[in-house]
Amino acid sequence: MKDALSPDTAPLSASFSLRVFGVLYGGVCYLVFLGVFLYTIGFVGNLIVLKSIDSGDSVSLAEALPVNLLLLGLFTIQHSVMARPAFKRWWTRFVPSPVERSSYVLLSSLLLALLFWQWRPMPGPVWHVQQPMGVAVLWGLFFFGWLVALISTFLIDHFDLFGLRQVWLFATGKPCSPPLFRTRAFYRVVRHPIMLGFIIAFWATPDMTWGHLLFAFTTTAYILIAVRLEERDLRDIHGHVYKEYQQRVSMLIPWASGKRKA
Questions:
Q1: What is the share, in percent, of the chain residues with pLDDT greater than 90?
Q2: How confident is the model over 15-29, as a mean pLDDT?
Q3: What are the start-end ranges of the H helices in 46-156?
Q4: Chain CA centroid to CA 104, Å
Q5: With helix as H, strand as E and coil as C, how does 33-54 read?
Q6: 170 near 98, Cβ under 8 Å?
Q7: Residue 13 in this model has a pLDDT that exceeds 80
Q8: CA–CA separation, 205 vs 239, rounded Å?
Q9: Which tens digit of pLDDT belongs to each residue from 210-222?
Q10: Are the CB atoms for 169 and 176 separated by under 8 Å?
């Protein structure tokens, strides 16, 4: 099956049923991601969803802290390791190349769903903003962060990022080449606007609890490590073009140019 679905032979030798399966599988993985992404907004913001970051029965710190760290660790390790080129080369010996990205998206989404399900609330207050203007600003930043993250996926290639482009090209018998390197809109301000959007959304809250703080701090620390690993891969892919981009545009702080700056 792997040989039939390899990038070089897929357009010529894959059967119709395999192409249909690829599209259906990629579509299901994307829908799972979309549902989890929307749930994440509610989970972090304590909005609408059945189980949020501060809801549920309180447990002892001795239980909550290790369980929550384990859940965060499972997601961050999977999310980073499976994104590395060396792992992809090994992984695609068993998983067909056209559905590799969809499989990555699916597993990431399922681990996030596990985190939501098993998260132990740590409701002790860290800060509580009561001034109406302050509350409005923080909620505005919260939704702004999510909007920046979502829009930024479309500024590069949303459908490639979440595996739909790969399965569609496979189904239509076209070769799958890497997406073009683009620096539009937000990407002219920072190199990683998706991650910047997440950081803003995770920290912008009028009611910060210890559980929320643990989530925000751990995910931010992971982002700072992950973007440096990703930058190494991007330099290998795009060469001097990306190196020049690093010199012009900051990693995460808007309008702060220079490779060494965040």
A1: 63
A2: 90
A3: 61-81, 85-91, 100-118, 132-156
A4: 11
A5: HHHHHHHHHHHHHCCCCCCCCC
A6: yes
A7: no
A8: 39
A9: 999 999 999 999 9
A10: yes
pLDDT in tens, 76-88: 999 889 988 888 8
**Residue reference for tokens 């994307």:** 30
Cα angle, residue 203 at apex, residues 198 and 207 outer, rounded to 5°? 140
Q: With beta carbons less than 8 A apart as the criterion, state whether 67 and 120 touch.
A: yes
Q: How does pLDDT run across 104-149, given as a tens digit for each residue?
A: 999 999 999 999 999 999 999 999 999 999 999 999 999 999 999 9
State the angle between helix axes of 61-81 and 100-118 in degrees (0 to 180), rounded to the nearest 10: 170
Cα torsion 127, 128, 132, 136 to 10°: value is 60
Cα–Cα dist 58/68, whole Å: 13
User: What are the sequence ranges of the domains in the chain?
Assistant: 10-248
Residues with Cβ within 8 Å of 168's Cβ and at least 6 positions away in sequence, in order, are: 23, 26, 159
Amino acid at 241: V
Report the length, in residues, of the chain.
262
Q: Which residues contact 178 (CB under 8 A, 6 or more apart)?
A: 237
Does the structure show a pLDDT above 50 at 192?
yes
Q: Which two tokens stand for residue 209?
A: 């609890």
CA distances from 107 to 100, 101, 221, 227, 252 (A): 11, 10, 21, 20, 27
DSSP-derived 3-state class of residue 172: coil
